Amino acid sequence: MSDPQTKLDGSSSEEKQDTEAIKIPTTARERDELDDLFDDFVSKKSIFINKDVLSIRHVPKIIPHRGEHIKKLGMILAPALRNDRPSNIFVYGKTGTGKTLCVLHTLNRIVERVKGTDSALRFAYLNCKLKKVADTEYRVIASLAKELGAKVPVTGLPTDEVYNIFLKKLDEQEQVVILVLDEIDRLVKKTGDEILYSLTRINSELKKSKLCLIGISNDVRFIENIDPRVKSSLGEEELIFPPYNALELKDILSERATSAFVEDSIHPAVLPKCAAYAAKEHGDARRALDLLRVAGEVAERAAAEEVKMDHIREAEDKIEKNRILELVKTLPNQSKLLIYSIFLLSKNKTDKLITGEIYQTYAELCKVNDNSILTQRRISDLISELDMLGLINARVISKGRHGRTREIYSTIPTDLTEIISEDLRGELRL
DNA sequence: AGGTATTCACATGAAACTATTCTCTGAGTTAGG
DNA sequence: TAACTCAGAGAATAGTTTCATGTGAATACCTGT
After folding, report:
1. Are residues A38 and A72 in the same domain?
2. Is A325 within 8 Å of A419 (Cβ atoms)?
3. Is A24 helix (H, G, I), strand (E, B) or coil?
4. Spatial distance from the CA of A335 to the C1' of C18 (Å)
5. A84 and A149 share a domain?
6. Is A381 a member of any domain?
7. Nucleotides of chain B within 7 Å of a protein C-beta?
8. Closest Cα to residue A283, out of A103, A96, A101, A99?
9. Does residue A123 sit within a domain?
10. How far does the CA of A136 sit from the C1' of C3, in Å?
């Protein structure tokens, strides 16, 4: 999959089968533009060697500028090698600072080390952000139990029953189990800290096995307002991941770029530019990698042999547009109607809009679309939400005798509003 | 001219209501001993 | 008989509505010069 050569081979043979299946004799067809395009693509050298290296899921062998952290993690977790319980760890850092990466890397290495010996050690990783998987107490415990190989029904059992199943499975054999709870702050925000309390207390109920918890959070204030008992036991060891600065980001990028791109296919100014862009956004390595990947794709599509600054600029634009598009797509229907009315109004009007006229347009749209009309009170809240998302700009002003209202204008570039409007029109049957 | 009161058009808060999702329970079903 | 499945009840939650109160400055009105 990762090797472009095999990928191309695979798809071309598939294509052949397909054409045979629907019985279009290739010889009878005139060569057309598409054939040329495919030929071009196949014959041309790709500037990528392995694009997967730039994806978020990729776990690289070398993690630059996190040596200290990995070492510390290793030191804390090392007792597991001797079948002792390592201290619980609380890991904190903003998104894209390499928390998850370092933890998984260290755990993989430990498991690798244990392989072949008789000490039993395993780890389970759970991302609490994922809806429908780990966003309630029941689901977390059920997922954990599943990770350990127990069968748990999706619903129908009392929580403590699932808890018992989990406990039983855990205590089946003599082993050290390391539990990684990623984005633990979300879990606690949604369900409270009871699970954490029971998980931190679980060791006293276990006879054979030992459990070690690693909590990963994006939010440092999170640890301040949880149950002090949980706090002290989860935070036996704490590890803070500071954001990367531009120089470190550049190192990370060049590290990955060497295995992702063909040699000499990146203009020297490109990596610093990517790094600077991400450093601006609180040192998020994810962003930097994303930008580089998209820039590479842009360059490849433009048949360039080198990723240049122009490609970066285009990629930046593209990523931003994608972000907005995704954001709008995931909005609830009522908000979509609202934003569509804002687009409609701002098309015919140059100056700023106010809540009242938006509400009117929205109400009419609802009628046409056979949708229930929300109250102005609610719309007022929805407008604030759109403002927080950065889709519109709104501020409260007082117009004296003419009352107090919000001044609103869309911050989305006009060419994008056209695209979104088209989408919405189709989706909302307007 | 200067000061005060009014007024507009919503903003903002709190409480109440509603629909949906979770969790729990008990009853029915199934499979294996 | 244990394990599983499932429907229904109650609890929790998110989304909304209703009602009440707050807000800031343009404007209307008043007062004294």
Report:
1. no
2. yes
3. coil
4. 21
5. yes
6. yes
7. 6-14, 22-26
8. A96
9. yes
10. 25
Please state, in angstroms and rounded to a whole number, the distance separating the CA atoms of residues A304 and A245: 30
Q: Are residues A1 and A75 in the same domain?
A: no
- Rg of chain A, C-alpha, whole Å: 27
Q: Give the end of a domain, one of A206, A241, A276.
A: A241
Tell whether A181 is covered by a domain: yes
Domain that holds residue A103: 67-241
How many Å apart are A404 CA and C24 C1'? 7
Tens of pLDDT, residue by residue over A170-181, are: 777 788 889 888
CB of A67 under 7 A from strand C?
no
Does A23 share its domain with A111?
no
**Is A398's CB less than 7 Å from nucleic acid strand C?**
yes
**Distance from residue A402 (CA) to nucleotide B3 (C1'), in Å?**
22
Using CA atoms, how far residue A3 sits from A8, A10, A13, A64, A212, in Å, is 9, 11, 16, 25, 38
Three-state DSSP state, A99: helix
Residues A379-422 pLDDT 10s:
999 999 999 888 999 999 998 888 999 999 888 888 888 888 88
